[in-house]
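User: Show me a protein chain along with its predicted structure.
Assistant: Here is one chain, sequence first, then structure tokens.
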Amino acid sequence: MTTLKNDRLLRALLREPVDVTPVWMMRQAGRYLPEYRATREKAGGFMDLCRNPELACEVTIQPLDRYPLDAAILFSDILTVPDAMGLGLYFTEGEGPRFERPVQDEAAIDALGLPDMEEDLGYVMDAVRTIRRELNGRVPLIGFSGSPWTLATYMVEGGSAKNFSKVKGMMFDRPELMHRLLSKVAGAVTAYLNAQIDAGAQAVMIFDTWGGTLTPQHYQAFSLDYMQQILQGIKREADGHRIPVVLFTKGGGLWLEQMADTGCDALGIDWTLSLSDARRRVGDRVALQGNLDPCTLYASPERIREEVGQVLASFGNGNGHVFNLGHGIHPQIDPEHAGVFVEAVHELSRPYHGNH
């Protein structure tokens, strides 16, 4: 295997010393980049881009050619798993993702099969292998999946939801049915992340986008318990290296302690919580990733640098911080501003790593 020229991300996720704070951006391969839009056009559509390993590789690497980022993240979509479970994913203009066959009753849940990772999702694994080859050790590659609860919301609602009436309706009315669905999805996600690790992902992240919509007891039972199940089932080592796992529940600031207890290596933190508070609460059990408000990037370069400085100061000295946005970068952001952000992290974080 190629040796990594830049392993800052992996070191920080494992709370080891680094020279500067590593940085990457959620959705760093995205519509804010003109080169991404051109490749997507060439592919024909969003899912065509996801299903073409060469083009998925091209867009994964585009942001690294533009900015000194410390990680690549696989270009894909969280809904590839439910799609491979037979739900028929399609995208409509302005509507976002939809499923032809939503899962709304017992029969539909029982009919769900475990996808074959190299057949039904082979295009994702091919993309991982292609990206690893093309990166040639520049930076580590992060693989990812949606959390079972988040995937289930799309599967039951049939697409994006405003008030989660169908999925929460099922959860309150037929909890045993909801658990049956989540258990199947958790099995698929575990196999999916393991296949990404086998194909070459060097760290993985579980995106629990909708966990924050739940009450505390339902979060534990219907979201966190299933993420913990996945953590127990995924490979934590490959090629003699630890594979760090990051859990990210958007709006999950209330439950950091429980999240840190799952056995993950790092927690993604959104912008609604200060890193100093998060660090005080979880101690040195896990690394923290975050947490600049993505809207900061609409501001002037001076303001962006100031806000980056504040986030760094909030985490303070020591190891275990990966700088990121608190959620994905917005499509309207000026690419120059993203560059200011990335460079500011490296430049302003140096004093926090004085002993390196």
